What we know:
By secondary structure, the chain is α+β, with helices and mostly antiparallel strands. The protein has helices at residues 27-34, 45-56, 82-92, and strands at residues 9-13, 19-24, 38-44, 59-62, 71-76, 95-100, 103-108. It starts with 8 loop residues before the first strand and ends with a strand.
Amino acid sequence: RRLSLGPDEQAVFGSEGVFRAVRRKKSSKVLSWQEGCLVFEEDRLSDILATLERRFNVRFVVEESIDESEVFTMQFNSTETIDDVLRVLASMGKFRYVKHNGKIFLNERE
């Protein structure tokens, strides 16, 4: 299937590589990405985790009770670590994270 994108449009693919949607994105987000920054603008938790997995070469295990459709808006510069990102994300969400055996587990806050 062939797809044409216009200015400020982004193709969204699921973790299986299947096309899901076309989203309008601000050019500033693309420019930030080119500079190594992480910019999330009303992005779903599932999409953010997929980006973090690629960027930091990590694997997330998400507890079933966590709403992966929750949206977040945040930005990180290129020098911030996965721990920096996770601290902010966990403070904004309803979960905590634990790193164990090379995986990052997201669990509901007690």
